[in-house]
Amino acid sequence: MRQESVLVAGGGIAGLAVARALRSHGIRAVVSERTAHTSAPGLAINLPGNAVTAFAELGLKDELEKTGRPTRRREYRSAAGRLLFEVDEDEFWGPDSRPRCVRRSDLLALLDEPHEDNRRRSVIESVRPSAGGAEAAFADGQVEQHDFVIGADGVRSVVRQSLFPEQTSSSAVISTASFRIMAPNPGVDCFTAWSGDGSAFLLIPVDDDEVYAFASAAGGGHVDADPSWLSRTFASYPEPVKPVVAHAQRRPDALYHSPIEEIRIGEWSRGRIALIGDAAHATAPIWAQGAALAVEDALTIADVLAEGDWDTAGTRYQQQRRERVRHVQTATDRFSEALALPLEVRELNMPIAGPRAYREVFGPLRSK
Prior knowledge:
The chain is built from twelve helices and 21 strands.
Protein backbone atom coordinates (compact mmCIF):
# COMPACT_ATOMS: atom_id res chain seq x y z
CA MET A 1 0.00 0.00 0.00
CA ARG A 2 1.42 3.40 -0.99
CA GLN A 3 2.23 5.73 1.89
CA GLU A 4 0.74 9.19 1.53
CA SER A 5 3.34 11.96 1.42
CA VAL A 6 3.38 15.63 2.31
CA LEU A 7 5.81 17.95 0.58
CA VAL A 8 7.01 20.77 2.88
CA ALA A 9 8.41 23.86 1.19
CA GLY A 10 11.04 25.45 3.43
CA GLY A 11 13.56 24.13 5.94
CA GLY A 12 13.29 26.87 8.56
CA ILE A 13 11.49 26.73 11.89
CA ALA A 14 8.01 26.31 10.38
CA GLY A 15 9.08 23.65 7.88
CA LEU A 16 11.11 21.54 10.27
CA ALA A 17 8.39 21.81 12.94
CA VAL A 18 5.64 20.61 10.63
CA ALA A 19 7.82 17.77 9.31
CA ARG A 20 8.45 16.62 12.88
CA ALA A 21 4.75 16.92 13.77
CA LEU A 22 3.68 14.96 10.69
CA ARG A 23 6.17 12.17 11.37
CA SER A 24 4.85 11.88 14.92
CA HIS A 25 1.54 10.88 13.30
CA GLY A 26 3.24 8.42 10.96
CA ILE A 27 2.83 10.67 7.92
CA ARG A 28 5.78 10.86 5.51
CA ALA A 29 7.12 14.40 5.14
CA VAL A 30 9.56 15.50 2.45
CA VAL A 31 11.27 18.84 3.18
CA SER A 32 12.33 20.86 0.15
CA GLU A 33 15.22 23.20 0.84
CA ARG A 34 18.45 23.88 -1.01
CA THR A 35 20.42 23.91 2.26
CA ALA A 36 19.58 22.52 5.67
CA HIS A 37 19.42 25.88 7.45
CA THR A 38 18.73 29.13 5.62
CA SER A 39 18.22 31.51 8.55
CA ALA A 40 20.93 34.02 9.30
CA PRO A 41 23.59 32.21 11.33
CA GLY A 42 24.38 33.27 14.85
CA LEU A 43 21.21 35.27 15.49
CA ALA A 44 18.77 34.52 18.27
CA ILE A 45 15.04 34.38 18.79
CA ASN A 46 12.84 35.22 21.75
CA LEU A 47 10.34 32.47 22.60
CA PRO A 48 7.37 33.64 24.68
CA GLY A 49 5.49 31.16 26.84
CA ASN A 50 3.13 29.88 24.14
CA ALA A 51 6.12 29.10 21.92
CA VAL A 52 7.71 27.11 24.74
CA THR A 53 4.44 25.21 25.17
CA ALA A 54 4.31 24.44 21.45
CA PHE A 55 7.87 23.09 21.44
CA ALA A 56 6.95 20.90 24.39
CA GLU A 57 4.05 19.48 22.34
CA LEU A 58 6.60 18.60 19.67
CA GLY A 59 8.43 16.53 22.29
CA LEU A 60 11.29 19.00 22.71
CA LYS A 61 10.69 20.33 26.22
CA ASP A 62 13.81 18.85 27.83
CA GLU A 63 16.07 19.72 24.90
CA LEU A 64 14.81 23.30 24.78
CA GLU A 65 15.50 23.80 28.49
CA LYS A 66 19.17 23.00 27.83
CA THR A 67 19.55 25.81 25.28
CA GLY A 68 19.55 29.58 25.58
CA ARG A 69 18.50 31.37 28.74
CA PRO A 70 15.16 31.86 30.51
CA THR A 71 13.60 35.31 30.21
CA ARG A 72 12.19 35.83 33.70
CA ARG A 73 11.44 39.55 33.55
CA ARG A 74 10.70 42.34 31.08
CA GLU A 75 11.59 46.00 31.47
CA TYR A 76 10.35 48.81 29.23
CA ARG A 77 12.33 52.03 29.52
CA SER A 78 12.49 55.49 28.00
CA ALA A 79 15.38 56.49 25.74
CA ALA A 80 16.88 58.19 28.78
CA GLY A 81 16.78 54.93 30.73
CA ARG A 82 13.82 55.66 33.01
CA LEU A 83 11.81 52.55 33.89
CA LEU A 84 8.26 52.89 32.52
CA PHE A 85 6.96 49.47 33.56
CA GLU A 86 8.08 45.90 34.13
CA VAL A 87 6.53 42.44 33.89
CA ASP A 88 7.31 39.34 35.96
CA GLU A 89 7.23 36.72 33.21
CA ASP A 90 7.99 33.90 35.66
CA GLU A 91 4.82 34.68 37.56
CA PHE A 92 2.72 35.21 34.42
CA TRP A 93 3.68 32.08 32.50
CA GLY A 94 4.71 29.69 35.27
CA PRO A 95 7.67 27.27 35.27
CA ASP A 96 6.35 24.96 32.51
CA SER A 97 6.04 27.77 29.94
CA ARG A 98 8.87 30.08 31.00
CA PRO A 99 9.99 32.24 28.03
CA ARG A 100 13.50 31.74 26.66
CA CYS A 101 15.93 33.46 24.34
CA VAL A 102 17.66 30.89 22.13
CA ARG A 103 20.17 31.04 19.31
CA ARG A 104 18.37 30.40 16.05
CA SER A 105 20.95 27.85 14.95
CA ASP A 106 20.39 25.88 18.18
CA LEU A 107 16.64 25.97 17.65
CA LEU A 108 16.95 24.68 14.09
CA ALA A 109 19.28 21.93 15.26
CA LEU A 110 16.69 20.85 17.84
CA LEU A 111 13.95 20.69 15.22
CA ASP A 112 15.98 18.95 12.54
CA GLU A 113 15.78 15.17 12.29
CA PRO A 114 18.19 12.86 10.43
CA HIS A 115 15.78 11.96 7.65
CA GLU A 116 18.08 12.59 4.71
CA ASP A 117 16.02 10.23 2.54
CA ASN A 118 13.13 12.65 3.06
CA ARG A 119 15.07 15.81 2.20
CA ARG A 120 14.74 17.35 -1.26
CA ARG A 121 17.89 19.39 -2.01
CA SER A 122 16.18 21.70 -4.46
CA VAL A 123 13.77 24.59 -4.07
CA ILE A 124 10.22 24.67 -5.36
CA GLU A 125 9.59 27.05 -8.24
CA SER A 126 5.82 26.62 -8.42
CA VAL A 127 2.94 24.47 -7.18
CA ARG A 128 -0.59 23.89 -8.36
CA PRO A 129 -3.54 21.79 -7.19
CA SER A 130 -4.07 18.56 -9.09
CA ALA A 131 -6.42 15.60 -8.91
CA GLY A 132 -5.98 13.99 -5.49
CA GLY A 133 -3.04 16.14 -4.48
CA ALA A 134 -0.70 18.84 -5.74
CA GLU A 135 2.02 19.12 -8.36
CA ALA A 136 5.34 20.81 -7.59
CA ALA A 137 7.94 22.00 -10.08
CA PHE A 138 11.53 22.22 -8.79
CA ALA A 139 14.52 24.35 -9.72
CA ASP A 140 16.37 21.21 -10.88
CA GLY A 141 13.75 20.68 -13.58
CA GLN A 142 11.88 17.84 -11.88
CA VAL A 143 8.09 17.83 -11.47
CA GLU A 144 6.61 15.75 -8.65
CA GLN A 145 3.15 14.76 -7.50
CA HIS A 146 2.43 14.76 -3.76
CA ASP A 147 -0.69 14.09 -1.74
CA PHE A 148 -0.44 17.44 0.06
CA VAL A 149 1.87 20.47 -0.06
CA ILE A 150 2.58 22.78 2.89
CA GLY A 151 4.12 26.17 2.17
CA ALA A 152 6.44 26.95 5.08
CA ASP A 153 8.69 29.13 2.95
CA GLY A 154 8.42 32.46 4.70
CA VAL A 155 7.47 36.01 3.76
CA ARG A 156 8.65 35.57 0.15
CA SER A 157 6.76 32.30 -0.18
CA VAL A 158 6.82 30.73 -3.64
CA VAL A 159 3.89 28.54 -2.64
CA ARG A 160 1.79 31.60 -1.73
CA GLN A 161 2.80 33.31 -4.96
CA SER A 162 1.67 30.26 -6.91
CA LEU A 163 -1.73 30.13 -5.18
CA PHE A 164 -2.45 33.82 -4.72
CA PRO A 165 -0.24 35.83 -7.11
CA GLU A 166 -2.14 39.03 -6.37
CA GLN A 167 -1.24 38.89 -2.66
CA THR A 168 1.98 40.70 -1.74
CA SER A 169 3.73 41.72 1.45
CA SER A 170 3.49 45.19 2.99
CA SER A 171 5.78 47.17 5.28
CA ALA A 172 4.99 46.88 8.97
CA VAL A 173 3.30 49.72 10.82
CA ILE A 174 6.18 50.06 13.27
CA SER A 175 9.14 50.29 10.88
CA THR A 176 10.20 49.57 7.31
CA ALA A 177 13.21 47.53 8.45
CA SER A 178 15.35 46.53 11.42
CA PHE A 179 18.85 45.63 12.48
CA ARG A 180 19.42 42.45 14.48
CA ILE A 181 22.72 42.07 16.30
CA MET A 182 24.61 39.54 18.40
CA ALA A 183 27.06 41.20 20.80
CA PRO A 184 28.85 40.72 24.11
CA ASN A 185 26.41 41.16 26.98
CA PRO A 186 26.83 44.73 28.32
CA GLY A 187 25.36 43.77 31.69
CA VAL A 188 21.62 43.33 31.10
CA ASP A 189 19.97 40.47 32.97
CA CYS A 190 16.46 40.52 31.45
CA PHE A 191 14.42 41.48 28.40
CA THR A 192 15.00 45.26 28.24
CA ALA A 193 13.40 47.57 25.67
CA TRP A 194 14.09 51.29 25.26
CA SER A 195 11.95 53.55 23.06
CA GLY A 196 12.49 57.15 22.07
CA ASP A 197 11.15 59.60 19.54
CA GLY A 198 10.88 57.46 16.40
CA SER A 199 13.15 54.62 17.49
CA ALA A 200 13.28 51.49 19.65
CA PHE A 201 16.05 49.19 20.89
CA LEU A 202 15.72 45.78 22.55
CA LEU A 203 18.31 43.64 24.36
CA ILE A 204 17.75 40.05 25.53
CA PRO A 205 20.49 37.90 27.11
CA VAL A 206 21.11 34.60 25.32
CA ASP A 207 23.49 33.57 28.10
CA ASP A 208 25.84 35.28 30.55
CA ASP A 209 28.22 36.27 27.76
CA GLU A 210 26.10 37.22 24.76
CA VAL A 211 23.08 39.36 24.08
CA TYR A 212 20.61 39.55 21.19
CA ALA A 213 19.63 43.04 20.01
CA PHE A 214 16.80 44.30 17.84
CA ALA A 215 16.90 47.90 16.62
CA SER A 216 14.19 49.60 14.59
CA ALA A 217 12.45 52.85 13.84
CA ALA A 218 8.95 53.60 15.14
CA GLY A 219 5.92 55.17 13.51
CA GLY A 220 6.72 53.50 10.20
CA GLY A 221 10.10 55.18 9.92
CA HIS A 222 12.88 54.23 7.51
CA VAL A 223 15.90 52.22 8.65
CA ASP A 224 18.89 52.77 6.42
CA ALA A 225 20.95 49.68 5.57
CA ASP A 226 24.16 51.56 6.39
CA PRO A 227 25.23 50.60 9.95
CA SER A 228 25.91 54.29 10.63
CA TRP A 229 22.11 54.57 11.06
CA LEU A 230 22.58 52.84 14.41
CA SER A 231 25.14 55.29 15.77
CA ARG A 232 23.10 58.29 14.55
CA THR A 233 19.77 57.02 15.88
CA PHE A 234 20.87 55.72 19.27
CA ALA A 235 23.59 58.25 20.15
CA SER A 236 21.60 59.54 23.13
CA TYR A 237 20.46 56.14 24.41
CA PRO A 238 21.83 54.93 27.78
CA GLU A 239 24.95 52.92 28.52
CA PRO A 240 23.71 49.32 27.92
CA VAL A 241 22.80 50.26 24.33
CA LYS A 242 25.96 52.16 23.42
CA PRO A 243 28.47 49.26 23.69
CA VAL A 244 26.22 47.07 21.55
CA VAL A 245 26.03 49.77 18.86
CA ALA A 246 29.80 50.23 19.06
CA HIS A 247 30.29 46.48 18.66
CA ALA A 248 28.08 46.54 15.57
CA GLN A 249 30.22 49.29 14.04
CA ARG A 250 33.39 47.26 14.62
CA ARG A 251 31.88 43.91 13.60
CA PRO A 252 29.51 44.28 10.63
CA ASP A 253 29.45 40.47 10.40
CA ALA A 254 27.44 40.51 13.65
CA LEU A 255 24.74 42.64 11.98
CA TYR A 256 21.69 41.56 10.01
CA HIS A 257 19.57 44.20 8.25
CA SER A 258 16.23 43.20 6.79
CA PRO A 259 12.83 44.70 5.95
CA ILE A 260 9.96 44.15 8.37
CA GLU A 261 7.21 42.83 6.12
CA GLU A 262 3.74 41.61 6.95
CA ILE A 263 1.34 39.25 5.19
CA ARG A 264 -2.39 39.81 5.61
CA ILE A 265 -4.40 37.54 3.33
CA GLY A 266 -7.90 36.09 3.51
CA GLU A 267 -7.05 32.52 2.51
CA TRP A 268 -4.25 30.21 3.57
CA SER A 269 -5.20 27.17 1.53
CA ARG A 270 -6.48 25.96 -1.81
CA GLY A 271 -7.22 22.34 -2.54
CA ARG A 272 -4.52 20.17 -1.02
CA ILE A 273 -2.09 23.05 -0.55
CA ALA A 274 -1.82 25.13 2.64
CA LEU A 275 0.38 27.90 4.03
CA ILE A 276 1.76 28.04 7.57
CA GLY A 277 3.88 30.47 9.59
CA ASP A 278 5.19 33.62 7.91
CA ALA A 279 4.09 32.38 4.50
CA ALA A 280 0.49 32.76 5.71
CA HIS A 281 0.60 35.58 8.25
CA ALA A 282 4.00 37.23 8.80
CA THR A 283 3.64 39.88 11.50
CA ALA A 284 6.05 42.47 12.89
CA PRO A 285 7.91 40.98 15.89
CA ILE A 286 6.35 43.29 18.50
CA TRP A 287 5.14 40.32 20.58
CA ALA A 288 7.72 37.77 19.31
CA GLN A 289 5.03 35.52 17.85
CA GLY A 290 6.68 34.48 14.58
CA ALA A 291 8.10 31.16 15.76
CA ALA A 292 5.26 30.61 18.24
CA LEU A 293 2.51 30.87 15.64
CA ALA A 294 4.54 28.85 13.14
CA VAL A 295 4.97 25.89 15.48
CA GLU A 296 1.33 26.12 16.58
CA ASP A 297 0.32 26.08 12.90
CA ALA A 298 2.52 23.04 12.37
CA LEU A 299 0.93 21.12 15.22
CA THR A 300 -2.58 22.02 14.09
CA ILE A 301 -2.22 21.10 10.43
CA ALA A 302 -0.48 17.83 11.34
CA ASP A 303 -3.39 16.95 13.66
CA VAL A 304 -5.91 17.84 10.95
CA LEU A 305 -4.15 15.71 8.35
CA ALA A 306 -3.96 12.82 10.83
CA GLU A 307 -7.75 12.99 11.15
CA GLY A 308 -8.13 12.23 7.43
CA ASP A 309 -10.09 13.85 4.56
CA TRP A 310 -7.16 15.69 3.07
CA ASP A 311 -9.41 17.44 0.56
CA THR A 312 -10.82 19.64 3.37
CA ALA A 313 -7.76 19.66 5.65
CA GLY A 314 -6.58 23.11 4.56
CA THR A 315 -9.95 24.69 5.27
CA ARG A 316 -10.27 23.00 8.67
CA TYR A 317 -6.76 24.05 9.66
CA GLN A 318 -7.48 27.66 8.70
CA GLN A 319 -10.74 27.68 10.67
CA GLN A 320 -8.91 26.53 13.79
CA ARG A 321 -6.07 29.03 13.53
CA ARG A 322 -7.64 32.22 12.12
CA GLU A 323 -8.93 33.79 15.35
CA ARG A 324 -5.65 33.33 17.23
CA VAL A 325 -3.59 34.82 14.43
CA ARG A 326 -5.99 37.75 14.09
CA HIS A 327 -5.63 38.42 17.81
CA VAL A 328 -1.83 38.72 17.44
CA GLN A 329 -2.10 40.89 14.32
CA THR A 330 -4.52 43.29 16.03
CA ALA A 331 -2.32 43.52 19.14
CA THR A 332 0.72 44.16 16.95
CA ASP A 333 -0.99 47.03 15.17
CA ARG A 334 -2.15 48.59 18.43
CA PHE A 335 1.29 48.57 20.03
CA SER A 336 2.93 49.80 16.82
CA GLU A 337 0.49 52.72 16.73
CA ALA A 338 1.14 53.44 20.40
CA LEU A 339 4.87 53.75 19.68
CA ALA A 340 4.02 56.42 17.12
CA LEU A 341 2.28 58.65 19.69
CA PRO A 342 4.02 61.85 20.82
CA LEU A 343 6.78 60.94 23.24
CA GLU A 344 5.33 62.79 26.23
CA VAL A 345 1.91 61.16 25.74
CA ARG A 346 3.41 57.69 25.39
CA GLU A 347 5.63 57.95 28.44
CA LEU A 348 2.78 59.33 30.54
CA ASN A 349 0.44 56.45 29.61
CA MET A 350 2.90 53.56 29.40
CA PRO A 351 3.10 52.71 33.14
CA ILE A 352 -0.61 51.84 33.11
CA ALA A 353 -1.24 50.90 29.48
CA GLY A 354 1.89 48.75 29.12
CA PRO A 355 1.14 46.07 31.74
CA ARG A 356 -2.50 45.99 30.64
CA ALA A 357 -1.49 45.48 27.00
CA TYR A 358 0.87 42.63 28.01
CA ARG A 359 -1.94 40.83 29.85
CA GLU A 360 -4.45 41.42 27.07
CA VAL A 361 -2.09 40.06 24.43
CA PHE A 362 -0.59 37.07 26.20
CA GLY A 363 -3.52 36.10 28.42
CA PRO A 364 -5.46 34.40 25.58
CA LEU A 365 -2.24 32.79 24.33
CA ARG A 366 -1.66 30.83 27.53
CA SER A 367 -4.22 28.28 26.33
CA LYS A 368 -4.66 26.75 22.88
